[in-house]
Amino acid sequence: MMEEEEQGWSYTDKFVCTACVDDYALEGAIRADETAGDVCDFCDRSPAAPLDSMLETFVDGLRNEYEDAAEGVSYDSSEDGWQWWGPIWNTYDLVSDHSDVLIGDGLVEAVQTAMHDRTWVEKDFAWRRRDQVLNESWDQFCNAVKYRTRYVIWLQDDPDELEADHTGEVPPARILDEIGRLIERLNLIQPLPAGSRLWRAQTHSDPTIDHTAARLGTSPVKYAKQANRMNPAGIPMFYGAADSKTAIREVAFRTDDSHVTLGLFETSIDSVVVDFTCLRPVPSMFDPEWGGFRRQLLFLHRFVNQLSDRVRPEYEQIDYVPTQILTEYLLRVYEKGRLVHGLLYTSSITGGTSAVLDVPNDRCVEQAADWRANDALRLGIDPSSIKSRKLTADDKTV
Predict the structure, then answer these.
(1) What pTM was estimated for this model as a whole?
(2) Assuming Cys at both sites, which of 95, 140, 201, 389 could form a disulfide with 172, CB separation 3.0 to 4.6 Å?
(3) In 3D, which of 172, 298, 313 has the Cα closest to residue 229?
(4) pLDDT by residue (tens digit) across 121-137?
């Protein structure tokens, strides 16, 4: 009885199968305990597992998003009960709200009967949901650096900053630090081994250009007059892609040039990147490992989509500012600028992997005998990979 009181549900004698739930985490809990000799009480299928196995995962998952009102909300019978004016659920209604994952005939009712009657509120009910906070903070940051205070946002006094630790809010000036912590928590810092290959494309009007590493590599500083997605004008970076199609289409969709030259570069040493392409999917709240991180991942998926999303052509010099600042933060400020060499992200045009590396023009070199003999990251071009051709209509398709 003490164990049941603590866990919030009572043991049952029923069995359930994976066909009666629609959630990968609940299916996993059932599959871990199912046996061929047991029959599901809700659809008569075998194999099945004790309903208790699924109940434990279900209730623990609910606690990733909800909590017992008695643990934090005041109750006053003379003042209409619970002293909270936000959403409140009893157990019956809370289970009903998640009937989309309990699809077996009679399974919702069985779970309602097994769970103890409680009054529920959202977890951390006094704070706003984490994805809402982070989304709003990032949006405010983007608006500020595009239209109000581009270079000194961190130095401005924010009256809300002193209260942030007590309210769960994230002032716009602190959103990059918050993103940095999420990057570390989700293991998005990944090695880029020596010999990693990246295609780089360059469009031009003349049928041929000088096929050298210096010509096809990062733009020299004196020519870096155009801002790009991850770098402002005057601070050039190397843009490449994991496949040739992505490399070409990323540079061809907005050009009037008639030709393109393509070359394959290799990294000279082991390096480190922030790999936004390996972001894990948004988990179910019932996921025993990641369910409690669901809200942060909802934010990160929206954030990563914005990183690679197409901008307004007539406003690209403005719309690129937030991603330029983010890149500079990761390269120069995060881990004191000693760790990250670049970023990997998904191309919004092809869905392939795009890359930006902090490698200047003088470190884009030919693959001579000693081209790797340097502690700094260099990019060596494979001369046999260089090809020039006319651009086609497909190359310019967005």
Answers:
(1) 0.90
(2) 140
(3) 313
(4) 999 988 899 999 999 99
